[in-house]
Amino acid sequence: MPELPEMENYRKLLSQHLINVPITGVTVNREKTINMETPEFTQALLGARIVFVERRAKHILFHLHDGRRLLLHLMLGGLLFYGTEAERPERSTQVELAFGDHILYFMGLRLGYLHLLSVKEGEAAMGKLGPELLDRRMTPERFAGLLKGRRGALKSLMVNQQVMAGIGNCYADEIAFEAGLLPTTLVQNLTPDAVARLYDSVRKVLTEATEIGGYMEMPFMTGDTVTGSYNDKCKVYDREGEPCLRCGGTIVKIELSGRKVFYCPDCQHDE
After folding, report:
1. Which residues of the chain does CATH 3.20.190.10 include?
2. If we measure between CA atoms, which residue out of 183, 64, 178, 171 comes closest to residue 116?
3. Could you confirm whether 58 is annotated as catalytic?
4. Using an 8 Å Cβ cutoff, are 74 and 115 in contact?
5. 140 catalytic, yes or no?
6. pTM for the full predicted model
7. What CATH fold (topology level) applies to the domain 140-263?
8. How many angstroms separate the Cα of 118 from the Cα of each of 38, 58, 64, 97, 121?
């Protein structure tokens, strides 16, 4: 599932190409992806202009010129591609938005969605999300406050979008590894030093992954050499049975509350 770094990378790229360019065509191949009948959705978007692209947690919000919002959540396996008809990806698309001779292809949205919302509806949809971890207002003290009084496994807390917005399975494991903490560590048992290491690790891992385009499996457009550059940088995620890059131990995989968890039992500890 695309997480904060992947969606922030998309936000930057979308902002470079779509701002103030009129939408000239709308194709809906899967009506369940949108939140209204196709003719209504199409009529509302034709001629509309995107004036601002915002990321909130794992969502993209396209701010339209008339004040409405297009809310995108890619969920599992969702992808974006921007190109001409000749560059059309060889996979099914759920929605396509044309901007002149270029098209924004929305793919893999079997579980994801693209909803047209009013300002009020958009604010309500984002209202329950926790704070942004890379926000300049996120200090070590504020971060420690997010954990105060919480209970349960560290990974379960980090992927809880109402507590920390934008982290999913991959980066929760990478952050825990960077901090030297087991993903199964009980939050209520973390020492102040462990919390400080966790804060530093959150900032380091998410910043690094964002700067090099996250782990998406295909480029955003022809010639894009940034998107997906983090694919080969993961130190524990999806590396079961491989040697730990820090201590040489063996990466293991377990399940925690139905989620895959990857870690090194030799150099990650409870505190």
Report:
1. 4-126
2. 64
3. yes
4. no
5. no
6. 0.94
7. Helicase, Ruva Protein; domain 3 (1.10.8)
8. 17, 19, 10, 19, 5
- Which position among 12, 49, 259, 260 bears the catalytic label? 259
pLDDT tens for the chain, residues 1 to 271:
899 999 999 999 999 999 999 999 999 999 999 999 999 999 999 999 999 999 999 999 999 999 999 999 999 889 999 999 999 999 999 999 999 999 999 999 888 999 999 999 999 999 999 999 999 999 999 999 999 999 999 999 999 999 999 999 999 999 999 999 999 999 999 999 999 999 999 999 999 999 999 999 899 999 999 999 998 899 999 999 999 999 999 999 999 988 999 999 999 999 8
Joined tokens for residue 271? 């505190």
Q: Which run of H or E residues covers position 115?
A: strand 113-117
Q: Which of 2, 5, 183, 219 is labelled catalytic?
A: 2
Q: Is 259 known to be catalytic? A: yes
246 is catalytic: no
Name the segment(s) of the chain with CATH classification 1.10.8.50: 140-263
Q: Which of 11, 55, 56, 58 is catalytic?
A: 58
- CATH 3.40.605.10 is held by the domain 4-126: no
